Amino acid sequence: MPEPLVAAVALTGANPFELSIASEFFGIRRGEVLRHLGTDDWYDYRIAGAQAGQAIETLGGAKIVVEHGPETIASADVVVVPMCPKGAERETRASGMIDPEPVPPAIIDAIRTASDRGATLMSYCSGSFAFAQAGLLDRRPATTHWRYAETFRRQFPAVQFVEDVLYVDDGDILTSAGSASGIDLTLHWMRKQHGAEAADMIARRLVVPPHREGGQAQYVRVPEPEVMDTSFAELLEWALEHLDQDLPVEVLAGRAAMSPRSFARHFKAATGTTPHQWLTDRRVDQARRLLETTDLPIDRVASASGLGSSANLRTRLRECVGVTPTAYRRRFARSQSAA
Question: Can you name the residues that pair with 122 across neighbouring β-strands?
Fold first, then answer.
C-alpha cells in the first residue's frame, strides 16, 4: 500500500517556521515511532507551489526551490497550508487588521480537487484563508490567528468563525491559530491517526507539551499580577503521577500554597483551561496509553487513569475520539514486539 501523500503549500512570502512544522511531522521518519507502530511506512512528503521548479523567497529572506506544482496538491491525501502571505500595503496599521494576499487560482483549484477526492485539509495561522477562498468553509467552523479575525469575518461571513481557540477539528478540514498552534493541531491529528503513545513520542522529540486542547485560548487577555515559579510546573508533574487519586482543586491549591480561588485563576492563566478540565484531559490521555500498551481490563484502565468507572471512561473516550474503549484498543493496541 503506498504511503499517504502529504503536500505542504509554499508560496512567495511563506513562513518557513510553519513549513518546518509540516516537515517535522510528515517529512521525518522517526525510528522509535515506526518501531512502535510496527511499520516502515510513514508519509510521502512534498512541498508544492504554484509552479514546479519555482524559486520563492520566504518570510525573512530565505529562498527555497519548490519542486512540485499544483498537480501534487490536487492528488494529495493531506494538504497542509501554512500562513497565506500578506502584502505590507494591505495592513491597516491603525486597526491592526491584516489582509492576506489572495491565493493563486491554480492553488485554489488544486485544493478544491483534493477536497473533492476526500483529502484531509489542514491550515496553520492564516492558511485558513485559502480554504475559505475556495468556498470549502461555508457553514463550517474554522479559526485563524487572532490578528486576522476581523478580516476573516468580513471577507467570509458564511464561515462559522470560532474565536480565541488553538485549533478547530471539523473532520476533513482542520484549522489552527497562530504559528505555534500548528504544532498543537498536527499533534492532535497524529494522535487521532496513530494513537496517544506515538504522538507523545513525537512530542518528546520536539520537546513540546504532548497535548493542548483545541479549545484553549490563543493568548491570555489579562496579564496576571503574580508570576508562578517553577513549583507550579512541579505541581503539574506531581498531578500527572497521581492521576488515579482524587485531586479536587483544594488539594492542588494546598500543594501550591494558595487559596482555591487564586489557584484556579493562576491555573487558567498558565494552561488556558480549568483544573478540572486539565485533569480530565490528562486522565483520558493516560487511559488511551493504557489501552494501547497494556492488556488491562477496561475497568482497571478506568481506575488506573483516575476516571473511576468503565462507564465514565466510555463516555469520555466517545467525547474525545468518538469510539468505545474496546474499539480504540482494537485500532491502536501494539504488540510487545512492535513496541
Answer: 80, 174
pLDDT in tens, 63-96: 999 999 999 999 999 999 998 876 543 454 444 5
Q: CB under 8 Å to 268, separation ≥6 — which residues?
A: 274
Which candidate, 247, 243, 251, places its Cα nearest to that of 313?
A: 243
Long-range contacts of range 37-43, CB-CB < 8 Å, 24 or more positions apart?
37/194, 37/198, 37/334, 37/338, 38/334, 38/335, 38/337, 38/338, 41/1, 41/3, 42/3, 43/3, 43/4, 43/5, 43/6, 43/78
- The answer to whether the CB of 87 falls within 8 A of the CB of 11 is no
Side by side, the strands of the sheet bearing 5-9 are: 44-48, 5-9, 78-81, 120-123, 173-176, 167-169
Output the CA torsion sign for 264, 267, 272, 277. negative
* Count of beta carbons in the 10 Å neighbourhood of residue 53: 10
Burial category of 318 from C-beta neighbours within 10 Å (exposed 0-12, middle 13-18, buried 19 and up): middle
Backbone angles phi, psi at 94, to 5 degrees: -65, -40
How much is the pLDDT for 268? 84
What values do phi and psi take at 155, rounded to 5?
-75, -30
Residue 57 parent element (H or E): strand 54-57
Note whether 5 and 44 are within 8 A (CB): yes
Taking the C-alpha atoms of residue 315 and residue 45, their distance in angstroms, rounded to an integer, is 36
Cell 518546518, located at residue: 20
Q: Calculate the alpha carbon distances from 138 to 33, 134, 174, 186 in Å.
A: 37, 9, 14, 23
- DSSP H helices in 13-66: 16-22, 31-37
* pTM of the complete model beyond 0.85: no
| 205: helix, strand or coil | helix
